[in-house]
Amino acid sequence: MKKESKKLLERASLAEKDMKRGHSDLMVAGNHIQSVAKSVYKVEGQAADLMDVLREIPGREALKLRAEVASMASHLRQQRTAIDKRIVKISELGVPI
Hints:
By secondary structure, the chain is mainly α. Helices cover 91% and strands 0% of the residues. Helix 1 (2-56) packs antiparallel against helix 2. The two termini are 43 Å apart. The relative contact order is 0.13.
């Protein structure tokens, strides 16, 4: 019985270490995701500013650039939404971000 108890205690100890490591990995990942989200917010703002400037410039080339920037901004919005969902999932697990 003692060997069994000892093995169970060892397993519990290893499981606790794994859980703590996983928790800390989640916190690091959450902080990284939040940092990426902030960067995406900044780039979205810059894209909006660029769109304003391009609206003032006449011509086909400006129109093409505006369409390209609008497409990129749309893609950024989708990425930001996905990032925000990941942040919510991590915080729902009880991990502070």
